[in-house]
């Protein structure tokens, strides 16, 4: 029995509310159980220097946790004093979101996706990627509506979910209690067509077999499919 009482292949309740902020071109509040992340997407008509005059667009991300998102208060991170974990997660979010974008069609502009964790209960990077895609899609919709884009650069959805081996069983969508005591913890980032974008997995307490990995992969495919459905409902697709 999982601490939450969920079945092994059951996700936490997922809700995605859009139009959360007034000024961002795209925004949403994603709730995966008790993990809540505010995601905003901002359009910048300039690209980083290494992309100037290439015709290619860029999607990047920043990630942070509010001081009381966790059980105890943490200090705010200045941009130049970000922890290695924060830097790793925001690079991961950027890589993940770019996997679903045709950068030629986006044109020479940048979209910055900010993911701010309001409350953390496991899976914050996965929620950030899933909600970040919704904010990105809404920003692109704004560019399409204004006529600044003619061809939609979004090629497919990108979503992420955690899976792990808890108490000897493969489970989907770990919350904090499970994540902190899991023998194996993995994050699966996938597209709506089922392609893998990135996989982060490690044996925390014990090694895992190929058969167990296959179980985790099957769970991840189920979870991502459910998240993609939630994304499409949120953006009206």
Automatic annotation (TrEMBL):
What are the protein's UniProt keywords?
Nucleotidyltransferase, RNA-binding, rRNA processing, Transferase, tRNA processing, tRNA-binding
Q: Where does phosphate bind?
A: 85, 123-125
Enzyme type, top EC level: transferase
The protein's superkingdom reads: Bacteria
**Pfam families recorded:** RNase_PH (PF01138), RNase_PH_C (PF03725)
Instruction: Report the GO molecular function annotations.
Output: 3'-5'-RNA exonuclease activity; tRNA binding; tRNA nucleotidyltransferase activity
Q: Kindly indicate whether the keyword RNA-binding belongs to this entry.
A: yes
Q: What is its EC number?
A: 2.7.7.56
PROSITE patterns from the UniProt entry: RIBONUCLEASE_PH (PS01277)
List the InterPro entries hit by this protein, alphabetically.
Answer: ExoRNase_PH_dom1, ExoRNase_PH_dom2, ExoRNase_PH_dom2_sf, PNPase/RNase_PH_dom_sf, Ribosomal_Su5_D2-typ_SF, RNase_PH, RNase_PH_bac-type, RNase_PH_CS
User: Can you cite a GO biological process for this protein?
Assistant: rRNA catabolic process
Residues of the Exoribonuclease phosphorolytic domain:
11-139, 158-223
> What catalytic activity does the UniProt entry give for this protein?
tRNA(n+1) + phosphate = tRNA(n) + a ribonucleoside 5'-diphosphate
Please state which protein family the record places this protein in: Belongs to the RNase PH family.
Quote the NCBIfam families the UniProt record gives: RNasePH
Subunit description: Homohexameric ring arranged as a trimer of dimers.
Q: What does this protein do?
A: Phosphorolytic 3'-5' exoribonuclease that plays an important role in tRNA 3'-end maturation. Removes nucleotide residues following the 3'-CCA terminus of tRNAs; can also add nucleotides to the ends of RNA molecules by using nucleoside diphosphates as substrates, but this may not be physiologically important. Probably plays a role in initiation of 16S rRNA degradation (leading to ribosome degradation) during starvation.
Q: What's the protein name?
A: Ribonuclease PH
What's the encoding gene here? rph
């Amino acid at each position: 029995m999982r601490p939450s009482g969920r079945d092994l292949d059951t996700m936490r309740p997922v809700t995605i509310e859009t139009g959360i902020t007034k000024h961002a071109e795209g925004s949403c509040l994603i709730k995966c159980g008790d993990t809540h992340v505010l995601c905003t997407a901002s359009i910048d008509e300039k690209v980083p220097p290494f992309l100037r005059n290439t015709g290619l667009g860029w999607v990047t991300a920043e990630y942070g946790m509010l001081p009381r998102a966790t059980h105890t208060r943490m200090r705010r991170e200045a941009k130049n004093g970000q922890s290695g974990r924060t830097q790793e997660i925001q690079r991961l979010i950027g890589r993940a979101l770019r996997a679903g974008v045709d950068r030629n069609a986006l044109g020479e502009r940048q979209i910055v996706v900010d993911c701010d964790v309001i409350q953390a209960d496991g899976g914050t990077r996965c929620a950030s990627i899933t909600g970040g895609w919704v904010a990105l899609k809404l920003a692109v919709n704004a560019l399409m509506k204004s006529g600044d884009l003619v061809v939609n650069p979004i090629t497919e959805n990108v979503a992420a979910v955690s899976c792990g081996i808890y108490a000897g069983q493969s489970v989907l969508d770990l919350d904090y209690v499970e994540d902190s005591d899991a023998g194996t913890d993995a994050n699966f980032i996938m597209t709506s067509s089922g392609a893998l974008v990135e996989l982060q997995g490690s044996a925390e307490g014990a090694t895992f077999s190929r058969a167990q990995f296959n179980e985790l992969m099957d769970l991840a495919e189920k979870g991502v499919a459910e998240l993609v459905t939630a994304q499409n409902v949120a953006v009206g697709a």
